[in-house]
Amino acid sequence: MDILYQIFVGPFVQMATAPDLLVQTLWDGLVSGVLYALIALGFVLIFKASGVFNFAQGIMVVFAALTLIGLHQDGLPAFVALALTVVVMFVLAVGIERLMLRPLVNQSDFILFMATFGLTYFLIGFGQLVFGGNPKVMITSDLWLPSGAIQYTGLGGYVQFQKIDIAAVIITSIMVAVLAVFFQRTRIGRALRAVADSHQAALSVGISLEQIWVIVWFAAGVVALATGIMWGARSNVDFSLEIVALKALPVLILGGLTSIPGAIVGGLIIGVGEKLADFYWGPLMGGGIEGWFPYVLALVFLVFRPQGLFGERIIERI
Amino acid sequence: MLYREVGQYKTNYAADMALFPILQDRIGIAVILAIAFVLIPLSGNDFLLNAVMIPFLIFALAAIGLNLLTGYCGQLSLGTGAFMGVGAYACLKLTTFFPNVNIIVWIIASGFFSAAVGALFGLPSLRIKGFYLLVATLAAQFFLEWCFIRIPWLYNNVYSGNIVVPSRTLAGVPVTGPTATSLTRYLVVLSIVVIMTWVASNLVRGRIGRMWMAVRDMDLAAELIGIRLLRTKLLAFAVSSFYCGVAGAMLVFLWYGGAEPDVFNVDQSFISLFMVIIGGLGTMIGSFFGAALIYILPIALREVPAALGLPLYPATVEQLQFVIVGVLIIVFLVLEPNGLARLWQIGKQKLRVWPFPY
Amino acid sequence: MRAPSAHEAGLGAALLAVEDVSLSFGGVRALTNVSVNIHKGEILAIIGPNGAGKTSMLNVINGFYQPQSGRITFKGEERRMMRPYEAAQGGIARTFQNLALFRGMTTLDNIMAGRTLKMRRGFFWQLLRHGPALAEEVEHRRVVEEIIDFLEIAAIRKVQVGRLPYGLQKRVELGRALAMEPDLLLLDEPMAGMNLEEKEDMSRFIIDVNQHYGTTIALIEHDMGVVMDLSDRVVVLDYGQKIADATPDEVKRDKNVIRAYLGEPHGTST
Known about the structure:
The complex is a heterotrimer of chains A (318), B (358) and C (270). In chain A, strand 1 and strand 2 form a beta hairpin. Helix content of chain A is 70%, strand content 4%. Chain A has 318 residues and is mostly helical. In chain A, helix 4 (57-73) packs antiparallel against helix 5. Chain B has 358 residues and is mainly α. Chain B has a domain at 45-265. Helix content of chain B is 71%, strand content 3%. Chain B has 14 helices and 4 strands. Chain B has helices at residues 13-16, 23-43, 46-72, 80-97, 103-122, 130-150, 182-205, 207-217, 219-224, 229-256, 266-279, 284-308, 314-335, 340-353, and strands spanning 163-164, 168-170, 173-176, 258-259. In chain B, the strands form 2 sheets. Chain B has a two-stranded antiparallel ribbon. Chain B has a two-stranded antiparallel ribbon with strand order 2-3. In chain B, strand 2 and strand 3 (173-176) form a beta hairpin. The longest helix of chain B has 28 residues, at 229-256. Chain B is globular. Helix content of chain C is 37%, strand content 24%. Chains in contact: A-B, A-C, B-C. The interface between A and B is large, with 49 and 44 residues.
């Protein structure tokens, strides 16, 4: 009975008696959720437009952040470095399209997915060769990003909100809004959706696959850069981010592979869920459950709703 | 013309269905086995045995395990590392509780624990497919990894949190632990890998292999010819994890001689998947090719610059290794999506018609 | 039970009876109160314009779709829910409109896969592939080779089916269905996309299967010539409803059928 109490009652008593800790945990979860959502967003962009499950999105985040810091360290002003990094991401998109996607056109999804594994390895090695393997500090203040924290007293204690986290939430919201408009309202957005449905059909109505692919990989690269800046501002930039970035996968499962709102909601659920679980239930199990909790949550979810929260119901035909 | 099968008629179906129906293949495999069992041990080269052959064979076995699941049954998995870990920890517990039972028995038996865990994590495969299943197997990977670190009972409450391999002997000869020679360990690994490869190839050529491939190629149609999807997939998960588990147990007991939990992290899962893809999905020989390329390439990369007198830092070599493996994966997928095994087939076809081009 | 109509009286017992079956997908009605009997030993053709519910009908019969209402009686056993593998165990085999072959496997393996249910040797014999397991494999190989001979596909025995031309793939698929030794064979447009010669071959195979093995066959086909020549009886579906169920000759003259295919003639619609 005692163990049941500890699992089913104890944590809630704790939440009720110390609301400040609860709010703090929720906020922390929300912010990591936003970052997961940003990575997932990069996935969704590419998956929607090319049907490629881009495993390399996580490493693109690291790569973009390292490029930015590296350029700044070479003496370039922060915003010039930022602009140049955007150019680098564009070059990367063109390179990926030329050297990887174009030769693999019309191959199965599985093959394309595997190719992004290769890309991941390449970027890990290449990034380390160029920028070294040591952790780096993000150039937060040079980019006019706020630092410090707002402290709110009340709820029987106090809650801290990092300014950079608030900025992250705002910037993410703006980016999602822009992308949503882009996808729904522009000619290119329509073309993107057409390509996602069928490569051949899109080609037959005169849509250039090459162009579309460069655009989405570039867009995903820019999203990766934004993610890298936000993430780097909260902790150091290094290659261990890659493992953290894998958490975007359960986010995608929850949200559905093709839904932008899904990526956001999924990200928030995973972020808040893992922080709550880790803080309130983790100690019962010896701690550190953050590492697997998102995956198990996604797994349980998948069994009941295989198409995700916002995905369309799959009717199988034969 | 060198590789002629013309004139080799089969007069019954059993001969036609043999593992190596063509004479040249039978000679080839005999030569390879002779080299592996006689020539390499005779060479007595400790580097070759301990740093090349033992890990190569173990990784090949893990690749075969994953290939059964992914290549034959079409279920993507990134849980290989964790399933290998289950085998290693199971083996440690078994030999701790029953130290007098032959260690080889426990290495094989640990596969059953791995199989059970694999089947458990295979359950979601009824409802989910493809990339979604990949994430489900990541749940297994991270959850089990966490168990390896957080449950001290699993590593016998050792302070360091590592597996410490005890010394065990077989008929008086040390097989595991610091006193076991590379040669003994090599021969044990080789025997296990050869037997298990033979068994796996039996399995995939028969009814069960056809059921797996049917599920892989079109699960709906498979169900309509009477194949029960869940059972078939779970069997694939179980058998696959069995192989991975045995490989994991061998990795720790017959190669490392001790291991930290992060030996079985997600990188091991990725590496195994690369081996299977580069080697060739759905082929036995491909698993060996893939393991050879992915495992032996880095060794070569380490040795070549040193041999040429190029002053490269070990870190640089490791980074180059990532770049090269990444590029290789893409190049292989572009040139030959079916992997090295397909190149092997093409090569054989060329030999068949040699010296003519067609 | 519905009383059998006059023309059904002369046929054998119903092997499979579909009664009052309705099926819909989120508001779209695919089948509405359809009743069809399939009699032992006959060749039944199911025809109708595109979207009439023909394939849905077959999918209901072999358990791929679960109808919202109605009854299905197969071999005297009534059921509402059935999984596809249970249909296969009961002796229902099936081919598909858009081919459902195992593309990565050889012709031989595809047809051998059709024997799965007939094979009995367990897992541990499979590991060894000697003794009883090998004997069983050889025994079934012999059956499969007969089918291969019958369908005249010996030359492509060891070719991956994904590389075969369409017509041959259709044949392999029929072979896989035959390997199951079914009591009821469902063929979904077995001659779609074939040229005249291939159609003649396929018609010959279908008649042979029906006569030599006594297999009951229900087939969907668009080529009226083929339907009229092959079938003993024709069921016509339109908008998910059965509008005719008679011999080929009667169906040809049926007013409802002509209307369904050609539309309302001018002036008669008032």
